[in-house]
Amino acid sequence: MEWKSDPMRKPLLLRGARQVGKSSAIRHLGETFQHFAEVNFERNKAIKSFFQGDIDVHLIAQKIAAYLGVPIVNGKTLLFLDEIQECPEAIMALRFFKEDYPELHVVAAGSLLEFALEELPTYGVGRIHSIFMYPMTFDEFLGACHEDALLAMRRQASSLSPIDDAFHQRLIDLFRIYLLVGGMPEAVLAWVTMGDMNRCQQIQSDIVLSYEDDFAKYKKKANPDLLRTTMRGVCHQSGQKLSFKQISTDYRSSQIREALRLLTLAGIVVPVVSTSGNGIPLEAEANDKNMKLLFLDTGLLLAVLQLEGGLSQQLVQFIMTGNAQELVNKGGVIEMVVGLEILRNKPAIQRQKMYYWEKSGKSIAEIDYLDIRNLKIMPIEVKSGTKGGMKSLWTFMREKHLTEATRCSLENFGEFTYVDMEDGEAQRHVTIVPVYALSQF
């Protein structure tokens, strides 16, 4: 809606993994216009010819209007070019809509769009506005479950004013459900309308299989079997430092690395790269040879493990019944979803990068995530329990001379100050952010 009303808007490119809701979101936007013209390049193959030869966007718009029988009127029509990766000439033409026809609202989306963009020499950088779309956040899940009052109450809570225990417990229960349902809109819809977890799992399995079917479209770049093996291997290592050997011994490291690059392009995995964390930007000291990987959705993660022969059932039972401390400290899925929540709540106008810190040697230390807050590095630990169990955090803060840190867990909002006797009684202040409130972080 902000884009719609922006007088300096550019053609909009909605980017993200398959089935996160890109087309549906644009159709909802179309309801706010007098006319909505949707072109699907997989279905309307003949329209591809409109973009051949010299690009005259006014003429193209007239042809589309005649073909669809929908008026294309400045300010009153939303022109939606769906599955645009099927027509690279249309991607190239987006820049000319900005230059020659800026009054018209033009939006485009597509699955595997990143692969098409990678192969184009230029597609109008500076003349196209991108928004990256992800599966639903926990806040969006609460909204879908009609828990607006609970969400409003949580938003009023803080480390100085924790939420009441009854509401805290209710949020934990809903967060457990969110871990199982995930954030894919179709799965969330099935849960909200039917409350049937088995139906959600069927939908999740169908989505995973559709991803694997897509791998055949990558075959110019990588073997579909390699992509399938790599994707499933990532799911077995959620929350852990990535080991290529654990993914497969049948493929070379270079092959697996290329498969990971393609899965990242497709939005299926998100790298969390190791960095020294000495200063800003974090990318300056990043080492992409050491990384962890986030799978795009917890529900889909469980579906992949289920396809591997029921491996997810034990994890499902753990999520449903494990006590809060064990779930945070022993469940890699919680560390993964914390990363996903941090990622999804960042600005959507650019592809975000994620980082962590590790120290090897005699004493191994690791900080789950590093982020930037107020132009300072903010270490984020996913851990439940006592101050004494956070040795990695104290080591990092001591080395980098930091006074502020965040702990994410299934505890209530809170904070504490730790006096570091090993560093001249320096004070370390830690804010406790519940995993169900990461949008407030």
UniProtKB/TrEMBL annotation:
Coiled coil ranges: none
All copies of domain AAA, residue ranges: 9-142
UniProt domain DUF4143: residue ranges: 212-385
Pfam families xref list: AAA_14, DUF4143
Protein's name according to its UniProt entry: AAA family ATPase
Organism this protein belongs to: Hallella faecis
